[in-house]
Amino acid sequence: MKLTTIGLTPRIGTETEAEADLDTLLNGSAVAEFRCLLEERGIIVLREVNLDDRQQVPFAKTLGEVTQLGDDSIFKVTLDKEQNRAAEYLKAAFFWHFDGTVGEIPHRAVHA
C-alpha cells in the first residue's frame, strides 16, 4: 500500500492520509511504510482514524513490541490519583515527554 504523506515541518513529523481501511491498519500490511516514516521523520499523524483503545494496541503491535503498562497494555492517562498511581509523574509529561528512557534497552534500539 502506498501512503499519501504530508511533511509537517522540513525534518520532523509526517501526516498520512489514511485512505486505508481499519483492517489494513490492523493487519500490518502497511507496517513497512509506517516504520520507514517513523525512522525518517520521528512522528506520524493519522487524523480522524478514530481507533479506540482496544484497536490502538493491535495497531501498535504491527510496528513492534508493545510495553505492558496497565490492563491489556493500555496505560490510563489521568491525573486522578485514585485511578492512576503515576498521576503526579504525569504532570511533568505535559511540558516534555519521551517514552522508554528507563528501560535497560531503549525502545526500537538494537541489542547487540
3D structure, described in words:
- The protein has two domains: 1-66, no CATH class; 68-97, no CATH class.
- The N and C termini lie far apart (32 Å).
- A three-stranded mixed beta sheet has the order 1-2-3.
- The longest helix has 11 residues, at 31-41.
- It has four helices and three strands.
- With 112 residues, the protein is α+β, with helices and mostly antiparallel strands.
Query: What's the Cα radius of gyration?
Result: 16 Å
Derived structural class: alpha+beta
**Major β-sheet profile:** 3 strands, mixed
What is the averaged pLDDT score? 80
- Please trace the helix and strand order, writing H or E for each element: EEHHEHH
Q: What distance separates the N and C termini? A: 32 Å
Q: What's the short story on this structure?
A:
With 112 residues, the chain is an alpha+beta fold. The protein is built from 4 helices and 3 strands, in the order E-E-H-H-E-H-H. Strands 1-2-3 form a 3-stranded mixed sheet.
